[in-house]
Amino acid sequence: MSDTGRKGFGDKASEALKPDSQKSYAEQGKEFVTDKADKFAGKVQPEENKGVFQGAQDSAQQGKDNAEGQGESLADQAKDYMGAAKSKLNDAVEYVSGRVHGEEDPTKK
């Protein structure tokens, strides 16, 4: 079970089980954005306000991040997430625009 506004463990697990090659462009974009938003929310939500499962999930994510050497400040991470979200949103707009106008699937090029 996840806290309100947070991505649940079941959602994360089901996303991880399905290979990216079987996901649509929209699914991959949504997953990327929701993962980044949840990661950010986990860093700003006080520990005392987290449920048991959400706290465990955030601790595991923090350990993974530390192991990968991410020593960025929270502000820097927020800028990175916003930039990545804007990029994915632009990609999605281009994809939808291309499909509406009958262009070939840009993800298949």
From TrEMBL:
- Which residues fall in a compositionally biased region of kind Basic and acidic residues? 1-21, 28-50
Q: Which InterPro entries match?
A: HSP9_HSP12 (IPR007250)
> Gene3D superfamilies under this entry?
6.10.280.100
Which regions form coiled coils? none
Q: Where is this region: Disordered?
A: 1-82
Q: What is this protein called?
A: Hsp12p
State the organism of origin. Answer: Saccharomyces cerevisiae x Saccharomyces kudriavzevii (strain VIN7) (Yeast)
